[in-house]
Amino acid sequence: LPLPPGPRRLPILGNALDVPTKDIPGAFRAMSEKYGDVVYLDVVGQPMILLGSHEAATDLLEKRSANYSDRTPSPMVEIAGFSWALTLQGYGPWWRRHRRAIHQFFNPNAILGYAPSQRLEAHRFALRLLDTPGDFLHHIRHFFGSSIMRISYGIEVDEDPVDYLTMAEDTLAIFSSVFVPGKFLVETFPVLRFVPAWMPGAQFKRDGKEWVKTVYKLVELPWKCTMDAVNRGVAPPSMASGLMENIAGLSAKEAAQEEEVARNATAVAYAGGADTTLSTVQTFFLAMASYPEVQAKAQAELDAVVGPSRLPEYSDQDSLPYINALVKELLRWRSVVPTGVPHRSIEDDEYKGYFIPKGSIVIPNIWAYSRDPTIYPDPETFMPERWLKDGRLNPDVRDSETIAFGYGRRSCPGKHFAMSSLYMIVSTVLHMLSIKAPTDPEGKPIPLSGRMTQGVIAYPEPFECVIEPRSSAAEALIRATAVEF
Ligand code: HEM
After folding, report:
1. How close are the terminal C-alpha atoms of the chain, in Å?
2. Which end of the chain is more exposed for a tag (fewer CB within 10 A), N or C?
3. Is the interface score ipTM higher than 0.85?
4. Which of 445, 433, 447 is nearest to 482 (CA)?
5. Is residue 117's pLDDT more than 90?
6. Whole-angstrom Cα distance, residue 299 to residue 114?
7. Rg of the chain, C-alpha, whole Å
8. Which residues contact 233 (CB under 8 A, 6 or more apart)?
């Protein structure tokens, strides 16, 4: 069978020079438009398959998940200190044990138990926005980091002298900048990992030493803190303390392994959860400041369903179709993980008459699927209406959740938690506050660029907006409700 079509390959280098380094999702989309749904690239002998449509991604990564759920072993995983992160682990029993540990605490039933904490954090968040609206980007980071820290480790970041939030931020910044496909030559030529750190061109090794220190602080410090609390019998319920309960009765060797899984899985839930959802919350502020008419419609729905005397609850969610549509549109409009986390095939395969060699890196272009104009007309416009029909969510529109969270057995295990957090934040903030673009000296709104950063995880580039209470009654309600603060 022939290989899938793709750009002409050079001797030895293959398509190494065709792999984009800037605007990766856009450049990949251009290749898919030129060569078709399945594109083949050879990066110095490493086969790479670019999937141009959601259908192709579903066919391979979802329906043939048993063959397409591996990850590419990269020397950078070890060099940058990420061997513990299940996101980058190969498919197999070790990965499965980590995945099971996360599932135990982030399955749809388990997350019901986090509702009170998520609600409280949303109220505190609204209060912070009221008091210091100019710091909204900081508040978003703080809000999400503190709620996931409580769930993962039972640690209250406001009461703890250690700056865990900065630790997670630094770790994710390293992750996001390092794991861009093709960024480091050592990935293409693994033998370079043996180059001594002092040699010219081995900057990655010098950086790696610093990265490892930062990354391991995140894995070790909160874990140690929670284990101290467990040993003293004062640990509040959390994923870390809950997983340690599984260890009772195991042999010493098994217990040590299980503790490693528990430590790693908790760290990945914290690190993976804190920054991704945060990007979508930033997108929410960007969208509301850019589309005042959408904001007005969402607030009219909240006024009608929730009313002025209380804050939104989870029990209101089914009666708030416009809010649910708005959350789906956030995931579609700005992709948090634009080219997903690449999968790898385990065995040779055949698809649409083409040969897919084993060991291929397989890339879903989440960003491109989310703006397919045949599914989402006028894709650059933020339009919650596209998800609705006769005042209800339209099940015939391809759900952005099936794209944004990845595919098959590697799809995001934090999806349900992310969705329920987003609902609570969006509904609470819109019920209480108004978000506007900043204005120029003549009072005209200054358009926001809406650009995203580049990297594995994408965030809106820093922007300003004006946040005010919707009314004095709304302000009084937040102040009265967030009393625990
Ligand atoms: C809006 C929020 C989020 C988005 C858009 C998102 C997106 C993604 C995507 C695209 C992947 C790769 C899936 C694939 O390989 O096909 C992924 C993996 C992952 N996510 Fe999320 N995620 C979000 C929130 C979270 C949260 C809250 C957690 C916390 C538990 C989390 C934990 C993980 C983990 C551990 C993986 C690796 C799974 C594996 O390799 O088996 N994510 N996520």
Report:
1. 64
2. N
3. yes
4. 433
5. no
6. 25
7. 23
8. none
Dihedral sign from CA coordinates of 472, 473, 474, 480: positive
- Residue 235 has, within 13 A of its CA and on its CB side, a CA count of 26
Q: How would residue 195 be classed by pLDDT, with cut points 50, 70 and 90?
A: very low
**Three-point CA angle 455, 88, 177, nearest 5°:** 20
pTM beyond cutoff 0.90: yes
Give the mutation target among 63, 276, 336 for probing the ligand 1 site: most ligand atoms within 8 A of CB: 276
Predicted pLDDT of residue 392:
96
Tally of helices (H runs) and strands (E runs) in the chain:
18, 10
Is the pLDDT at 179 greater than 90, yes or no?
no
Return the SS3 of 236.
Answer: coil
Cβ(98)–Cβ(374) below 8 Å: no
Asked if residue 265 has its Cβ within 6 Å of ligand 1, the reply is no
Question: Is a pLDDT exceeding 70 seen at residue 485?
Answer: no
* Phi, psi of 108, deg, nearest 5: -55, -30
Cα distances (angstroms) measured from residue 404 to each of 105, 118, 148, 200, 401 = 21, 22, 20, 40, 5
Residue 172: both structure tokens together: 């994710």
- Which ligand 1 atom sits closest to the C-alpha of 419? 1
CB 290 within 8 A of CB 448: yes
φ, ψ dihedrals at 38, nearest 5°: -125, 115
Helix (H) or strand (E) holding 220: helix 203-231
Pocket-testing residue among 140, 264, 405, ligand 1, by greatest number of atoms within 8 A of Cβ: 405
- Which tens digits make up the pLDDT trace of 200-252? 455 666 777 888 888 888 899 899 999 999 999 898 999 999 999 888 788 88
Q: CA 312, CA 201: separation in Å to the nearest integer?
A: 55
pLDDT at 51 over 90: yes
Q: How far apart are CA 310 and CA 107, in angstroms?
A: 29
Q: How far apart are CA 116 and CA 313, in angstroms?
A: 10
Does ligand 1 have an atom closer than 6 angstroms to the CB of 340?
yes
Both tokens of 41, joined, read 């690239």
Cα–Cα distance between 26 and 368 in angstroms, integer? Answer: 7
Task: Quote the longest CA-to-CA distance of the chain.
Answer: 72
Phi-psi region of 412 (alpha: psi -120 to 50; beta: other; left: phi over 0): beta
Tell me, in angstroms, the distance from the centre of ligand 1 to residue 236's CA: 26
Whether residue 212 contacts residue 229, with contact meaning beta carbons closer than 8 Å, is answered with no
* Structure tokens, 478: 């937040």
